[in-house]
Amino acid sequence: MDTIISRRRIAAGLLALCGAAGGGVAQADAVTDWNARLGAVAVQACISPAPNPFHESRLYAMAHLAIHDALNAIERRSTPYAYDAVAAGGASADAAVAAAAHTVVHHELPNLPWLFADCNAAAMQLSDTQYAEALAAIPNGSAKTDGIATGVAAANAIIAARANDGSDTTFADFGYPQGTQPGEWRFTAFIPFAAVPGWGNVKPFALRSADAYLPPPPYPVSCSTPRSQGFTGSCELYARDLEDVKNYGGASSSLRTPDETQIALFWIESSPLGWNRIARVVAPTFGHDLWQNARLFALMNMALADGYVASAHTKYHYAYWRPETAVQLADDDGNAHTAGDPTWMPLAPPTPPVPDYESAHSVAGGVAAEVLRRVLGVDQVRFETCSVTLPEPAERCGGTQEVRRQFSSFSQAAAENGRSRVLVGYHFQNAVTKGLGHGRKIGAEVAKRWLQPTG
User: What's the Cα-to-Cα distance from 134 to each of 59, 151, 191, 286, 432, rounded to whole Å?
Assistant: First the structure.
């Protein structure tokens, strides 16, 4: 009984992180509008903006692939993913988009892990309201009816394609074996479980396998670690990274500047939520039509979903400890170049309940920046974006003092997003650097091989 109560308290703590708004609806075209609506549903379902980017990224990928395929059934512009058909002549594109997104959401929300069950009814209600409002704006008639039928068919095709893909794996494994030696991952404060240890076995959307671009091993912690164990780098490089996160990522850091603190908290929000917002900001400036936007969002979100599968595989393959553990136990880590602090905590606890190496947040940033660069044809794009995880509600998206960070390129935003994980105390810099590179490789493969334009 005590275990059940403690698990419910942990669930409540995780869900409390979801109180921020999703940033509103774009009011641009049906694709970008539904992208924003999906974000709002994810927040209402309590899988965003923090606790569960794994199922969140999968939901976005499925919905946007259904949208892409529905539009391509109406007018073929690029290679379909799961639904290869021809819609009835004159079918409404807007109705097809709405039906595709709504059908995927209604199928997937009830399948979310038990931790998020209390939020399901409200999320379903929000999705129904969104759908009703979208359909009310479309004139009744055969075009609307045929568009709905096309969207539903495209959604059912992607639902069938993702059946039994492994996403029903345990979300919170309280019995996951913890490490005991320096460098080995173990639970951190407040969250005594391993999150989605089996997510690396989920079927990718586009990658040939989860380990297609497996990064090299992390740095050795102990200076006596034999090189034959396969670690790359040296214990001195590890000590440098530990000193970096210890000095700049701690709750009581005196070296972190106010701007660095803002960076740390700004990027805490889930990468799928944040990078989709960036895509909604940028896409209209390129003058793309509905089909081009559908391809952009489908590619980015399937790549993000695969990024989380690949990163989960990497994390549990190496099972490397988090800075929270490393700093507290540094006096006994076998490295003469490190010094411990048993009271050290990250800027914004709790530390996410997965191993350090590599940073999935950084993988996602590398993925999104690379897909945006390849699909839009340029990296140097000036834009600004907001966040829903700043501590002051007035500073969040839509607040009276909304904070917007400005960028001159997608790669600059990805780099800041990555560095934020050191500044918030969650990751070593090596996990960030390797994660960015891993993400760029995934994004490049997805943009190069999938949903290619026809004609």
Answer: 20, 13, 40, 25, 40
pLDDT for residue 398 is more than 70: yes
CA–CA distance, 416 with 156 (Å, rounded to integer): 38
For residue 226, pLDDT over 70 is answered with no
Q: How far apart are CA 14 and CA 183, in angstroms?
A: 26
CA distance 112 to 168: 8
Query: Cβ distance 92 to 184 under 8 Å?
Result: no
Q: Judge whether 222 and 229 are in contact, CB under 8 Å.
A: no
Tens of pLDDT, residue by residue over 111-121, are: 999 999 999 99
What is the structure's pLDDT at 133?
A: 97
pLDDT (tens digit per residue) in 309-327: 999 999 999 999 999 999 9
Tens digits of residue pLDDT in 211-225? 999 999 999 999 876
